[in-house]
Amino acid sequence: MARIVYQEMKQPRAFFYGLVSLHAAVIAVGLAAAYYMEHNGHVVTGMNNQIVWGLPHVFAVFLIVAASGALNVASISSVFQKLDYKPFARLSGLLAVSLLIGGLAVLVLDLGRPDRLIVAMTTYNFKSIFAWNIYLYTGFVVIVAAYLWTMMDRSAAAYNKPVAFLAFLWRLILTTGTGSIFGFLVAREAYAAAIMAPLFIAASFAYGLAFTILALITMCRSMESMLMTDEVVYKFRSLMILFILAVLYFTAVQHLANMYWAKHQGVERFLLLEGGVYTAVFWIGQILIGSIAPMAVLAYGPMATTRWGITLASLLVLVGGIAHMYTIIIAGQAYPLNLFPGMEVSSSFGDGQVTHYMPSIPEFLLGVSGISIAMLLAAVAILFLRFLPKPETVVPNA
Amino acid sequence: MTIDPKIAPAVAGEEGVGRRDFLRAVAGFAGVTLAPGVMLYSYGAAARPLDEAVSGKVRWGMLVDVSRCQSDCDACVSACFKENGLSAVERPTTDAQWIRKVDIRDPQTGVTRSLPVMCQHCAEPPCVDVCPTGASFKRADGIVLVDKHICIGCRYCMMACPYKARSFVHETHTDQVEAAPRGKGTVEGCTMCVTRVDAGNVPACVEACATTGNGAIIFGDLNDPASEIAQRIRTYATSQIRSDLGVDPGVHYQNL
Predict the structure, then answer these.
(1) Is A116 in contact with B102 (Cβ distance < 8 A)?
(2) pTM of the entire structure?
(3) Per the CB 3.0–4.6 Å rule, which of A106, A253, B99, B236 could disulfide with A60?
(4) A106 CA to chain B: closest CA distance, Å?
């Protein structure tokens, strides 16, 4: 393989600056929305004492899961020695960090007391998986930054292998931690299972790859140059199909186990059959749009192995990812806690009742701004540092 | 940070007002509530001196006799709201409810029951396990509380609680009471009326149930074999809600 030469974004087209401006505007609106919610309290959101985590969490968890998956391409190239992916390793690392920061920003801004972030950073309860995640997130940023350094500075190249391996290991632990935020909740019937960790890891592979592909396609368009060879497009396509199947597999096992246990059949009936909008989000959003459609695009039809094909499939996977997180986070809370198994229950506090959640516009704006924070950070980095391969140096293995 | 003068004593340890003022205020509050009429509802033990650490030998708990609890009675709920300044602002989904009446019906037999559900003050509280900052904590005497100073409002404890016992403060409340400061953006729940208990009294819900309700709730030290609560739990079959979860609630129910 020819030696890969990297470059900053050279003479980007108006398209690039248009996107940057759009993301900046979305971030400004998102921050205004966060201020509005912080100032008035969560009473102005759709969240309540039943749905305590709303749309901001959907976006935040989605981005955090995607972040660890975005490191895939770098890991495949460094840890598994697949040199075809090496030209995109830097971009992959950059996206991993920026997506994580975008997700964390939303998570923090949705806290009841975001001004107490310093408390969260200095006062720990080490039995809490949430507290562990704070270490996992900050550690991830530091390790991936070091990983990027070993890729970008020849004097540090000797450390590339061990740091790459550490980053790969860390990202697996990180997503295990994110999945376990839900898996460790003993009383939430929709979550309480160890499978949440591998499910989230599989999901991270799919979302992270989708973000990487879309970023690459956007860069191609911004620079009017071809960064991906047909061979790489084909490899990304195969990987994406594999990752979507993995998510489907773990989702199927998760629901099958719940259906088997009599005590969880109620929540399964709710999620899969009788949950109204939640059932629709699962079947139409996660399964149809997020899984079946992208696989159909990638496996059959005229676009199967084209850039258009992987672009469309990636977009579908991301929409499906939001639906997936919505099903897990919102539907899982909408189903009532089962305080008195086998009994019909009612109270003034919504016991025994399915909760209807109507997200407010500020929540949505804050959530979406997380994506824009990630994209803007990546765009600025790409503009000034050598993250992108020079097109003529990206050649397939001869 | 500015402190609402109404809640200042409760945050005295950290802000402006000194510890002595704080203790004096609490002592004064205790003195008022120890008025003769209320003595009837103290649990018999002397009030713990406020400069003495909480004892791990004690485990405060409650026993609710569900057969005495009537569906149309909400004396415990009203008393809790009054005691803790939980004025409802008619937003049922976001208004705090530290205690609620739950009606249950067995679909097979048609038998109905009505019972109060509040923080169950678990021995192994999931809310304490998951809290990232340690704001959710269990006192040595078994009372589960939220440290308002370090709660960041992440609501993970609300996700973890099997009893839906916690509420999030969704908006600013100006009509607060000294014993229960309420900060917008933090999580709160039944404190077992900790200031009353520390002063040697019973929680407000227990007192109200005895005076205007049906005498269904008793309060006491689960660890003291001579206490009424311990004797009744020894004598009669009682249960804990979702005992299968193994969190060992401090609230027990009889005739559930």
Answers:
(1) no
(2) 0.91
(3) A106
(4) 12
